[in-house]
DNA sequence: TGTTTGACCACGG
DNA sequence: GCCGTGGCCAAAC
């Protein structure tokens, strides 16, 4: 069995983010205990998997990845469609909407590839 | 082949 | 709070 690539792990975690919630690059990197927040950004930029990348924001709740969507407003619209309020490219009530994979998935989670 | 870059973040001052 | 810095490591050049 080949070892899963970093991208696939990131995708698997991103797919686990519930609709209406958001997570961060750093939280995913820390949860995987591999690579770094930059690597998570890189992995999502590859965009090979079908992961809800719009639910991943930076640690301040800013939509730092919006530039890389098909249109600059796409990320915001997707979030709003899920009930997430966005103002000035930033998630409103970010601290309460934040979804921490290490809490939700625990230490023994195995990726679904 | 080395260097720079990047959807980032923790840390120290 | 805001800086500057270091670190992470694959890709692009």
Descriptive key words:
113 residues, mainly alpha, two-stranded parallel sheet, two-stranded antiparallel sheet, 6 helices, 4 strands, 40% helix, globular, DNA-binding
Write the layout of secondary structure elements.
Layout (H helix, E strand, L loop, with lengths): L5 H11 L6 E2 H8 L4 H10 L9 E2 L16 H8 L4 E2 L2 E2 L2 H4 L3 H4 L9
Parallel strand pairs: 1-2
Antiparallel strand pairs: 3-4
Helix pairs in contact: 1-3, 2-3
This protein binds a DNA duplex (13 and 13 nucleotides) through helix 2, helix 3 and strand 2.
Got a strand count?
4
Helix content range: 25-40%
Mean pLDDT: 92
Q: How many H/I helical runs?
A: 6
Return residue spans where pLDDT drops below 50 for at least 5 consecutive residues.
none
CA-based gyration radius: 13 Å
Name the helix and strand elements from N-terminus to C-terminus, one letter apiece: HEHHEHEEHH
Overall structural class, as computed from helix and strand content, comes to mainly alpha
Global geometry: globular
Strand ordering within the main sheet: 1-2
Percentage beta strand = 5-15%
Distance between the termini: 12 Å
Largest sheet: 2 strands, parallel
Structure description:
This protein is mainly alpha-helical and 113 residues long. It contains six helices and four strands; from the N terminus they run αβααβαββαα. The chain has helices spanning 6-16, 25-32, 37-46, 74-81, 94-97, 101-104, and strands at residues 23-24, 56-57, 86-87, 90-91. The strands form two sheets. The protein has a two-stranded parallel ribbon. A two-stranded antiparallel ribbon has the order 3-4. Strand 3 (86-87) and strand 4 (90-91) form a beta hairpin. The model has no long low-confidence stretch (mean pLDDT 92). It binds a DNA duplex (13 and 13 nucleotides) through helix 2, helix 3 and strand 2.
């Amino acid at each position: 069995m080949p070892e899963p690539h970093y991208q696939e792990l990131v995708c698997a975690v991103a797919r686990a983010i519930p609709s209406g919630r958001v997570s961060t690059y750093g939280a995913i990197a820390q949860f995987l205990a591999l690579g770094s927040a930059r690597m998570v950004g890189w992995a999502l930029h590859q965009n090979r998997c079908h992961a809800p990348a719009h639910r991943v924001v930076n640690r301040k709740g800013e939509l730092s990845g919006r530039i890389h969507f098909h249109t600059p407003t796409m990320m915001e619209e997707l979030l709003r469609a899920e009930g997430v309020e966005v103002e000035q490219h930033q998630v409103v009530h970010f601290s309460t909407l934040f979804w921490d994979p290490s809490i939700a998935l625990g230490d023994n989670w195995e990726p679904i590839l």
